[in-house]
Every structure is written in C-alpha cells, then in structure tokens.
UniProtKB/TrEMBL annotation:
<feature type="domain" description="Mechanosensitive ion channel MscS">
    <location>
        <begin position="500"/>
        <end position="565"/>
    </location>
</feature>
<keyword id="KW-0472">Membrane</keyword>
<keyword id="KW-1003">Cell membrane</keyword>
<dbReference type="InterPro" id="IPR011014">
    <property type="entry name" value="MscS_channel_TM-2"/>
</dbReference>
<feature type="transmembrane region" description="Helical">
    <location>
        <begin position="121"/>
        <end position="140"/>
    </location>
</feature>
<dbReference type="InterPro" id="IPR011066">
    <property type="entry name" value="MscS_channel_C_sf"/>
</dbReference>
<keyword id="KW-1133">Transmembrane helix</keyword>
<dbReference type="InterPro" id="IPR006685">
    <property type="entry name" value="MscS_channel_2nd"/>
</dbReference>
<dbReference type="InterPro" id="IPR049278">
    <property type="entry name" value="MS_channel_C"/>
</dbReference>
<comment type="similarity">
    <text>Belongs to the MscS (TC 1.A.23) family.</text>
</comment>
<feature type="domain" description="Mechanosensitive ion channel transmembrane helices 2/3">
    <location>
        <begin position="458"/>
        <end position="499"/>
    </location>
</feature>
<feature type="transmembrane region" description="Helical">
    <location>
        <begin position="455"/>
        <end position="474"/>
    </location>
</feature>
<feature type="transmembrane region" description="Helical">
    <location>
        <begin position="480"/>
        <end position="502"/>
    </location>
</feature>
<feature type="transmembrane region" description="Helical">
    <location>
        <begin position="160"/>
        <end position="179"/>
    </location>
</feature>
<feature type="transmembrane region" description="Helical">
    <location>
        <begin position="185"/>
        <end position="203"/>
    </location>
</feature>
<dbReference type="InterPro" id="IPR023408">
    <property type="entry name" value="MscS_beta-dom_sf"/>
</dbReference>
<dbReference type="Pfam" id="PF21082">
    <property type="entry name" value="MS_channel_3rd"/>
</dbReference>
C-alpha cells in the first residue's frame, strides 16, 4: 500500500469528523442559552402580559411601529452586525477577569453538590467505572480471540469484534454507574464525561478499521517490511494521533462547556472555554498543514492555508457563524465528498451485484453517498444562514432568495442522481448483447433498443434539465406559469423559423417508429451509404466502408435501402468455353455449394447454398452461366470469394475451361501486325 492511501483516509476522517461534531457543538458552544431565569421573574412577566391595560397599550403601539419601513437598508443591516460583533467581543473580554471568581464558585458547588464533601469522589468514580469497562472489554476480546483458529483476521470479523468490545465497555461502565442512586448533578457530569470518552474511542476505532481495511490486501507473505509499508505505517500513526486529538478537543470540549452553566459558570465564560478548545484544534490543524506525510505543497500554499485557518477561528470569536461554516465547507467539504465517494465505491465493489440491479445499487450507493454529504451540509448551512441572511438582505425577499439558492443545490443533487441512474441503466442496456442461440426476434429487439436508447437518453437529459431549472426558479420566487406560456409561444415562433430543423427531428421520429434502420446496419440513401454508428435528435452518422463518416440530417435521407436486414441474395456470373461440359459444371458448382454450407466457417451464415440457375446466354467467347447464393447480410462476400477459388480449382481438375475474350485476325501480315499491336494496347489500358 502506498503512502497516498493512508493520507487520503486521514484527510477524509479529519474532514468528516469536524463537520459531524461541529454540528453538535455549534448549538452548544456558539449559542449557549442564558443561565436559568428565576421562576419568580418569569411569573411576573407572564402576569404583566395578561394585564388588560398592558394589552390595550400594546395594541395601540403595534400600528405605530407597523407604519415604519419594514425593510432596513443594507447599511443598517451591516451596522447592526457590527454592533453585535463588537458587543460579543466586549462580553468575551469582560468574561476573562471573571474566570477566577466563577471557577472558585464552581469548585464550591462541585465540592458540595457533586463530591458531597469528599474530595476526589468524582475522579474516583470515573476511574472505577473506566476500570470496570476496560475489564469487561478485555474479557470479551479474549473470548473472541479464543474463538478464532488462526491469526488471520477477516475485515468483517474485525469490525464485529471492535463493535462488540466498545458496546461491552459502554454497557459495563454506564450500567455499573446507573445501578446505584447518585445526586442529579453528579449523575449528569459522570454520564456526560463517559459519553465523551466513549465517543473518542469510537472515532479511534473507526480510523483504525479504515486503515486496516485499506492495508488488508497490500501485505506480503514475507515478514520483512518494505520501505513502502514502513512509510504507510508512519502515515497511519500520524493521522491516528491527530484525529484522536481533534476528537478529544471536540468531544471533551463539548462535554465541559455543556456542563459549565450547571455548576455556576456564566454563558460568556463558557464561550471563552469553547474558544480555547477551538484554539487547540486550530493548533493541531496548522500542525497537520505543515507536517502532513506525503505533502508536496509549497511553503506559500501552506502559509496561505494557515492564515485561512486563523481567519476561520477569528470568525468564530466574532460570532460570525455563517462565515465560519461556509469557510469550513470550502475547506473540508470537497475532501469529505471525495472520501465518502471512494468508501462508497469500495463498498459497492464488495457487494458484487450483477445486472440492472447491480448498476442501480452502484449508482445509488456512490452518487447517493456524495449527495447525502452535500445535502446535509446545505441543510445545516441553511439553518445557520436563514435568519442572518434575512437580516443582511434587509427584506423578506432576500431571505427567499438565500433560501432558494440553498434549496436549488438540493434540486440539482436530486436531478444529478436521477440522470446518473438513468444514464447508467441505458449504458448497461446498450452494452448487453443478445445471448447465444437467441431468436431472430430477440436479436432484432436488441438492435432496435440500441438504436432508440441514445435518442431517449438525449430527450431525458433535456427533460431533467428543464424540470430542474423550472423548480429552481420556482424556489427563488419566480412565477413559472407565465414563463411556460411564453416559452410555448416562443417555441411556436422558433418552429416557424426553423422548419428544416423541425423536419429533421420529426423525420427521425418516424424513421424510428418505422424501424427503418438500427445501429450497426449498413444502409444506402441516394449518394450516402455506410454503417449506422449513432444518432442525434436531427441526424444520423454513417461510416462508409472505406472510412469516411457522413453526418446526414434525417430530412435528407428520403428512401432508405437497408442492406443488413433479414437476408441477402447474391447473383454471380461465370463464362465457360463452348467445348466444356455444362452439365458437369452444374454438378461441380452444386457440390461446392454443399461443401461451403457444411463448412463450420460459413454454415451459420448460409441460408441457401450456392447453386447454378442455368445458362444465361451465349456470349462471343463462351457460355454465360448464372449462379445464386442466399446468406445473412454482410457475410456473402467471404463466401463468394471462397466459392470462386473452389470453382477454379474444380474446373481445372475436370477439364472445364473458363472462357476469355479472344481476337481472330485474318488477312495479310500487315493487318495481322496491326491487329496484334491494337490488342497489346487494349491489354495495356486494361
């Protein structure tokens, strides 16, 4: 296994895991709800809203505010964003000096409500649960290892073993904890930290399994590792450590930040801790950029990528979540799509499904996996951007446009999936040759499908494209009904101005309905003749037997002479001298025809064997004989050439002479010499 494969897997995991978990962290780190509101104030607020005098006052104020312009200008929206960013930065700066005091208060709460006055109780519980989980996991791994007969581990067995071990750890640790009664806050903290630890182990297991599956077929029987294997193992260790660190910062950061409000920390302090965890992930990402194995990027590119990562972290600090997620997608989504596509392709290859079902599953798995990744990214981006885009646009129209653009990506993904599925099925059907021993009707049906399917594919592509465009326009708020009506009128106008094009298209439709020709057949129409190679909506491509290609519009074909349909009758002429035995020649020709019909090379193509029809005429130099041969289209030429060779040999062996033109000269020597000279000139010209 080359060094590039572990690098691709590492990039895939590094791209997918942050996107997956930052969806979880986005709501908890960036948008922490305020610390619980006192119930007394909430009841006072509800009582105030239910006061009739307050209701009357509010009803009087609402029309006054409605008279103000509902849509703020773009400058006002940007100004409000600036104020929000400045307020967030000020709140974060004010939260930093409060960290020691809030940490002391949190320590008191932990000591009183979590440890119950016994220092280290939380840590002791976590240590005991971890030991119990690892002990149960060790027993399961040992039992599974004893069940194997050799050291060779099947990839599927490895996956099941890893899943069983992790489930055992989770059930043993969490089950042991839930078996006893604990204070609510202690229960919440322990379960949250255990779930984070289990999630980190799941990530590590997935990475190891991916590397194991990738390198399962690359190991040699020799125990001595090669240089390529050593480099591959180095890359695997590099990515496993970095991915584990990223997962640790993400998951334990999420756990800590989600627990902080419950032990007395304010929202702003929790955000500061979240940003510090993000700073740790930023350091790991920058280290990956500069030290990634097999990286051939220049220092300039690495520097620009480092600045890009720092800019994304600063956008997170400023609270620009829309910009943050958009930047993350630009950086990670292409790698995630490629990686998921490669994994789906490998999975589809292992399925080994044949036939049309296999083709459909391959397309659905590969293209569907990529579409699912992009669709999930667009859905989350739509959730993040929906409110902010409306505020930036300053009107409801702006929100509709932004939402329509995001929805249009989903429409394009669905259209692409349908098109790829239809195209793959059509290609599979066109490549499917008739089975041996198929009837003439099956062969004809197969040829007709090969002729019609390319036209259907082109029409289907246009239909899917038009429907997708109309759906996108409708999602953007465009009224498509007048557009469709206008397109109809415009189409009629184009039809009158493009009568030749319409004639070609309609002629092609009727040619297909009449089954006049198919792909692979040899046809002739006027001065055009050749083998049909392909079609379009308005023309046919003919390959002449000498090589040139004719692209002929359907409207110019006219009457079609199809030379490849059903059978062909070939007429042959032969002249023998007057002193030859005609009856013997007839018997010899009949015998040769029977031998050719029995020859394995020509038997399948011969419909009626070669035979002599009789004497056609008496020529100047001999008796003209007429012969006929019925074969399958296109095979008569080889049989005809072999027949002439056999006839020449048989005639020579039986004393039958083939007549040749002769000139008899009578008279003086001068005339004879002139005649001989004239004969030589004619022979030279011929």
């Amino acid at each position: 296994m080359s060094n590039a494969l572990p690098t691709r897997i590492g990039i895939l995991v590094s791209a997918v895991i942050p996107i997956f978990f930052w969806v979880l962290l986005g709501t908890s780190w960036a948008q922490q709800p305020p610390v619980g509101v006192p119930p007394e104030k909430a009841r006072q607020f509800l009582d105030l809203l239910s006061d009739p005098e307050v209701k009357v006052w509010l009803e009087g104020k609402i029309p006054a505010t409605a008279e103000e312009p509902s849509a703020a200008s773009l400058a006002d929206a940007i100004s409000s964003w600036e104020l929000a960013v400045r307020a967030r930065l000020v709140a974060l700066a004010d939260a930093i000096p409060r960290i020691p005091q809030e940490a002391a208060n949190a320590a008191g709460i932990v000591s009183r409500d979590v440890n119950s006055g016994r220092p280290g109780l939380l840590i002791l519980i976590l240590a005991v649960l971890t030991i119990v989980g690892f002990g149960a996991e060790w027993l399961v791994r040992r039992a599974l290892a004893l069940g194997g007969s050799d050291r060779t581990i099947d990839p599927g067995q490895a996956v099941l073993s890893e899943v069983a071990a992790l489930l055992t750890f989770a059930l043993a640790a969490i089950g042991s904890f839930l078996a006893f009664e604990w204070p609510p806050l202690l229960r919440r903290i322990v379960l949250t930290l255990l779930l984070a630890f289990i999630a980190v182990r799941v990530v590590r297991a997935i990475v190891r399994l991916l590397f194991g599956l990738a390198g399962a077929g690359s190991r040699t029987s020799d125990d001595t590792p090669t240089a390529t294997q050593v480099a591959s193992e180095t890359a695997q260790r590099f990515w496993l450590r970095r991915v584990s660190l990223i997962a640790g910062f993400l998951l334990f950061g999420w756990a800590v930040v989600s627990l902080m409000p419950g032990i007395g920390f304010s929202t702003d302090v929790a955000r500061v801790v979240a940003l510090l965890c993000g700073l740790g992930m930023l350091a790991i990402a920058i280290e990956i950029v500069w030290r990634r194995p097999g990286s051939a990027a220049s220092a300039v590119r690495q520097s620009l990528l480092t600045l890009y990562l720092i800019a994304l972290w600063l956008a997170w600090v400023a609270g620009l979540l829309g910009v943050l997620w958009l930047g993350l997608y630009v950086l990670l989504l292409p790698a995630a799509v490629r990686g998921v596509g490669n994994v789906a392709q490998a999975f589809a290859g292992r399925a080994q499904r044949s036939g049309a079902l296999g083709v459909m599953l391959n397309v659905l798995i590969v293209r569907g996996a990529r579409a699912a990744v992009i669709g999930a990214a667009v859905a989350w981006l739509a959730y993040i951007w929906r409110i902010r885009a409306a505020a930036l646009a300053g009107s409801e129209t702006g929100a509709i446009v932004i939402s329509g653009l995001l929805n249009s990506i989903i429409v394009l993904l669905v259209a692409d999936l349908l098109w790829q599925l239809a195209k793959a099925l059509i290609a599979y059907r066109m490549e499917l040759a008739p089975k041996e021993g198929s009837s003439a009707d099956d062969v004809a049906r197969s040829g007709r499908l090969r002729t019609l399917l390319p036209i259907f594919r082109n029409v289907l592509a246009v239909f899917i494209g038009v429907v997708a465009v109309l759906t996108i326009l409708s999602g953007l708020g465009v009224q498509i009904a007048p557009l469709i009506a206008g397109a109809g009128i415009f189409g009629v106008a184009i039809g009158f101005g493009s009568q030749t094009l319409v004639k070609d298209v309609l002629s092609g439709v009727f040619y297909m309905l009449d089954d006049a020709f198919r792909v692979g057949e040899y046809i002739q129409s006027g001065s055009y003749k050749g083998t049909v190679e392909s079609f379009s909506l308005r023309s046919v491509r003919l390959r002449h037997h000498r090589g040139p290609i004719y692209t002929v519009p359907f409207g110019e074909l006219g009457a079609i002479q199809n030379m490849s349909r059903d059978w062909v009758m070939d007429k042959m002429a032969l002249s023998i001298t007057y002193d030859s035995d005609v009856d013997l020649a007839r018997r010899l020709i009949k015998k040769i025809g029977q031998e050719l019909a029995a020859d394995p090379e020509f038997a399948a193509d011969t419909i009626e064997p070669l035979k002599m029809q009789g004497v056609d005429s008496f020529g100047d130099s001999g008796i003209d004989l007429r012969m006929k041969l019925m074969t399958k289209p296109g095979t008569q030429f080889g049989i005809k050439r072999r027949a002439f060779m056999m006839i020449k040999k048989a005639f020579d062996e039986n004393g039958i002479k083939i007549a040749v033109p002769t000139v008899h000269v009578a008279g003086g020597g001068d005339n004879a010499a002139a005649a001989q000279q004239l004969l030589k000139m004619k022979q030279a010209e011929s």
